[in-house]
């Protein structure tokens, strides 16, 4: 959620172009809009706050990923891990 907010704030142009492409290509958006999705992702990944979240919250995110691997049939068992990661990201 924090990364999405950063993307919307600092990469608005890329996000809007991607959204317009998806809306214009309902049947083939995954193929047709791939380049725009990458552009939006690159923009967000380059932002210093996103980089800081990746550094400062690496452990809670890794714990969440481990939980998903250990509980593939019951993702809801990992909600505490998601909450811990989001709490960390909000503090950054």
TrEMBL record:
One of its GO terms (biological process) is cellular respiration. Residues 57-88 form the CHCH domain. Keywords: Disulfide bond. It comes from the Eukaryota. Signal peptide: none annotated. GO terms for cellular component: mitochondrial intermembrane space. Residues 4-48 form the IMS import disulfide relay-system CHCH-CHCH-like Cx9C domain. PANTHER family: COILED-COIL-HELIX-COILED-COIL-HELIX DOMAIN-CONTAINING PROTEIN 5. This is CHCH5 protein.
């Amino acid at each position: 959620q924090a990364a999405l907010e950063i993307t919307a704030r600092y990469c608005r142009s890329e996000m809007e172009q991607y959204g317009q492409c998806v809306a214009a290509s309902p049947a083939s958006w995954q193929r047709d809009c791939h380049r725009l999705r990458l552009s939006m992702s690159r923009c967000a990944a380059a932002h210093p706050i996103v980089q800081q979240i990746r550094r400062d919250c690496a452990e809670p995110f890794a714990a969440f990923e481990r939980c998903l691997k250990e509980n593939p049939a019951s993702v809801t068992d990992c909600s505490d891990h998601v909450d811990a990661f989001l709490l960390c990201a909000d503090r950054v």
